[in-house]
């Protein structure tokens, strides 16, 4: 009995010592990167119970959209590492929450924002592009198309000449806002569908969505900054200028897809380069060496409000988008890879918490575990670790993101989410002349001062 006790105690001490020292990461060794990613994935999934009896698949603590992020991260984990441990639970969640093939499940539809929905759509699009295993029950591509179709129906030319509102329903707080992440998500999804299917309608929608964002002060082309949102009340001319990394990521990655689709169009090259430069300046501060990602809410300084649950996830999204930007726009690799490597090494030091479910902290610029931990912190660590597999995948014949012409096997349904299934030849809703004219109109008068709803907007969605 006592020998067994001492064996357990000794094992616990060894484990504690390993955690205290942090994850031992060799950024130049793919096996070391995979081990680090496996540790972070395990820690993240200790917070998930949707695959247990009596629980709801795909449901996670906090906001519904977090599930889209988590299972998108697990699809990417499988792709980069080859580890199938979480494939079944990922597939179950992505199917369970699909609603009517549009990621508008009945239990959540009344309260969803367009940004909430689009992250599940982007997860499905990622699964399609990476040939994540499908069942006969579902097509990843069709689910992404269902999200696109239901969002295209919400395009709002009656206010501000276009754009998506933040919220889908008029009774929800935030309906009178048009924000970057909702419109950027729609833009990115359209760009990815255009590249995958070569359907010109998706290309036109991507062009229109981007043009609209630059016609109001969401995307400021001079200096390439992205504001968080604008108000309908101000004719979309009074911006909230809060800077969040996922707004940049969602647009630079979408622009990289358009660059790839158009065989290197200078327009999209300039967009990607401009947004990356601002991303480096805003979220990889020289104060911490210039290669470690930092959200504005992370430094413990006077006047800085700590990150909320949503803001704590942004690094997961951005590091993944940086990784895939290098694969579809290879000339960006030399500037992106050092940022991913520095961030991963910082995350490894932060992953030194007291137990497997509390191992990874939030602030990668600190050398020691900061005590801020949870599902989101583990997800961010997982994403930045897997993103560092990029140099070891380069040149592989099956390198994603794939298209229907380069090995993608997911079959689409252009009518998904519209309530009826039509032959494959049918197209999404066409862009009208009015849409094109509306997208090009830019008003230039800024009216009023922003009234301070940044915290509400970010925490509400």
TrEMBL record:
The chain crosses the membrane at residues 437-458. GO terms for biological process: carbohydrate catabolic process; fungal-type cell wall biogenesis. It comes from the Eukaryota. The keyword Transmembrane applies. One of its GO terms (cellular component) is endomembrane system. This is Mannan endo-1,6-alpha-mannosidase. It comes from Aspergillus oryzae (strain 3.042). Belongs to the glycosyl hydrolase 76 family.
């Amino acid at each position: 009995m006592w020998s067994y006790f001492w064996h357990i105690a000794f094992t616990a001490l060894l484990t504690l010592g390993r955690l205290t020292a942090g994850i031992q990461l060799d950024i130049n060794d793919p096996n070391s990167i995979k081990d680090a990613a496996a540790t972070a994935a395990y820690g993240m999934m200790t917070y998930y119970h949707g695959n247990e009896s009596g629980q709801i698949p795909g449901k996670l603590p906090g906001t519904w959209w977090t599930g889209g992020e988590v299972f998108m991260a697990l699809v990417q984990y499988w792709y980069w590492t080859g580890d199938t441990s979480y494939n079944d639970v990922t597939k179950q969640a992505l199917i369970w929450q699909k609603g009517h093939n549009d990621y508008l499940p009945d239990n959540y539809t009344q309260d969803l924002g367009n940004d909430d929905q689009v992250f599940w759509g982007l997860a499905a699009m990622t699964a399609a592009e990476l040939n994540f295993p499908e069942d006969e029950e579902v097509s990843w591509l069709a689910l992404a198309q269902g999200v696109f179709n239901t969002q295209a129906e919400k395009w709002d030319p009656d206010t501000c000449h276009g754009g998506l509102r933040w919220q889908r329903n008029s009774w929800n707080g935030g309906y009178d806002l048009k924000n970057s992440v909702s419109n950027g998500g729609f833009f990115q999804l359209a760009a990815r569908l255009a590249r995958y299917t070569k359907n010109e309608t998706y290309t036109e929608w991507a062009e229109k969505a981007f043009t609209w964002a630059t016609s109001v002060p969401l995307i400021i082309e001079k200096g390439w900054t992205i504001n968080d949102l604008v108000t309908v009340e101000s004719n979309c001319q009074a911006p909230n200028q809060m800077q969040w990394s996922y707004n940049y990521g969602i647009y630079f990655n979408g622009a990289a897809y358009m660059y790839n689709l158009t065989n290197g169009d200078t327009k999209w090259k300039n967009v990607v380069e401009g947004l990356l430069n601002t991303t480096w300046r805003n979220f990889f501060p020289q104060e911490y060496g210039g290669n470690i990602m930092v959200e504005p809410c992370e430094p413990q300084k006077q006047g800085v409000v700590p990150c909320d649950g949503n803001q704590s996830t942004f690094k997961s999204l951005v590091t993944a988008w940086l990784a895939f930007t290098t694969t579809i726009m290879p000339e960006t690799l030399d500037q992106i890879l050092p940022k991913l490597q520095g961030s991963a090494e910082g995350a490894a030091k932060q992953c030194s918490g007291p137990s497997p479910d509390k191992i990874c902290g939030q602030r990668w610029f600190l050398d020691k575990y900061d005590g801020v931990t949870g599902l989101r912190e583990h997800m961010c660590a997982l994403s930045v670790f897997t993103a560092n597999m990029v140099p070891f995948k380069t040149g592989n014949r099956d390198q994603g993101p794939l298209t229907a012409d380069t090995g993608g096997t997911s079959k689409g349904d252009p009518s998904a989410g519209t309530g009826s299934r039509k032959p494959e030849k049918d197209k999404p809703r066409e862009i009208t002349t009015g849409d094109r004219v509306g997208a090009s109109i830019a008003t230039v008068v800024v009216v009023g001062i922003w009234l301070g709803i940044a915290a509400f907007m970010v925490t509400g969605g």
